[in-house]
Amino acid sequence: MHRDSRINVAGSIVMHGLGYELPRYQPKRRCASTARPAPTLPYKSPSMRRAIGKIAAMRSRSMGTPLAPPVKNIVSTASLRDLRVSVDFFRKHISNTDITPQEIQIGSAQFTVTNNNATKTGPFPLVDYTDHWWNPQESGMGFSIMQHPSDRIFAAWFVYDQMGQPTWYTLQPGQWLSSTVYTGPIYKTTGTYLGATYDPGQLVVTPVGTGTLSFHSYSSATFTYTVEGKNGTKEITRLSF
Predict the structure, then answer these.
(1) How remote is the C-alpha of 154 from its chain's centroid?
(2) 220-227 and 204-217: which strand pairing?
(3) What percent of the residues of the chain are helix, what percent strand, and what percent coil, each to the nearest 5?
(4) pLDDT tier, 104 (very low <50, low <70, confident <90, very high otherwise)
């Protein structure tokens, strides 16, 4: 003879997105004749059966299920210039009659990644340094750096002359000595007053020295210059707005 001991069902329903996982519950039994645990069997109480039914109803009304995993089966082929990639997308699906997740393919995509640097020769930058640059301790002075798709830089440097008047210098055209060092001539430009009709005859472009931009990281650099007989360096960073 044996009897079932009192069954305590404790647990919770784990929800992953719109997919649900139900733990199996196993009652403990004791055999009166031997006082040893009887083999345990999967058990679903009436309350658990009702919970499973509610979850199935909720799942049938849902708009979809999460991607799990979001991307699979990535296949790529590469050449010197292009990388062609094919990707398959899957989602997990749980039917109303089975709580075991099934993967269903929902689509695929193909795209090509082009390496624009593959055909370049000589030093070239790996980062786009286009931005406004300055030294926070020297407000009022700064650089506007434009890096063209050809990799050449046009840099405008706004400072002040001995009389405290705003002065503009430009670094152009220049060349890359390495992937992080750019150097070129510096020019001073004067022309028509803003409040007058533009007169091209007043335009004067004068070479005044050289400058070198040495980029230490994406957002920090040192500018070394010789301008109108004066040598110096400026530590600059990207202007954060």
Answers:
(1) 27
(2) antiparallel
(3) 10, 45, 45
(4) confident
Tell me the backbone φ, ψ of residue 64, rounded to 5 degrees. 170, 180
Cα–Cα distance between 204 and 202 in angstroms, integer? 6
Neighbours of 207 (CB within 10 A): 9
In DSSP notation, 5-53 reads: PPP------EEETTEEE---B----B-TTT-SBPPP--B--HHHHHHHH
3 Cα distance to chain centroid: 63
Asked if 172 and 157 touch (Cβ cutoff 8 Å), the reply is: no
Q: What is the CA radius of gyration of the chain?
A: 36
Residues in a beta bridge with 133: 143, 238
Task: Convert the pLDDT of each residue in 84-101 to its tens digit.
Answer: 888 888 787 777 777 777
Tokens of 93: 């699906």
Phi then psi for 142, rounded to 5 degrees? -175, 180
